[in-house]
# Entry
Amino acid sequence: MNSNALFITLLSSAVFMTGGVRGQNSNQDLKDAKNKVEGAAESVKNYTFTEKDEFVSMMKRKLDGINRSLDKIDAQADKSGADTKAEAKTKVDVLRVKVSQLGEQVDAAKHSTESTWDRVKTDTENACKKLKSEVRNADRWANEKISH
# Structure
């Protein structure tokens, strides 16, 4: 399946799974779905050693997205009580340290050799997946704790 067909398939799936595009925010919803599909397609790609720079750029974009999610949690926490705000700050601070560590790992990937590339790439991807999962959990916590 070529990349355009994969993109269209993933985009269609995303629109279907979200119940279609409707309402005043339909353009934003479509853009969000497109970004998620592009991110998923990027994750599926098996970067070779010669595509190392492209991999590093993709990982930096993911780190930027993670930082935006943490900023969102911070902003939500600012609207909450002192105890919740302190708990959220602790969670976000721990995650920001992990973002920094992953950033260092991504920077180190730039200097990997052909013989170490597969291990470095796999370790970096796994660390990113784990971090994204932790950020999703923190976001869920914030939505439940702060929204109510």
The longest helix spans residues 117-147. The chain has two domains: 1-45, 47-148. Residues 47-148 form a domain with the Four Helix Bundle (Hemerythrin (Met), subunit A) fold (CATH 1.20.120). The radius of gyration is 18 Å.
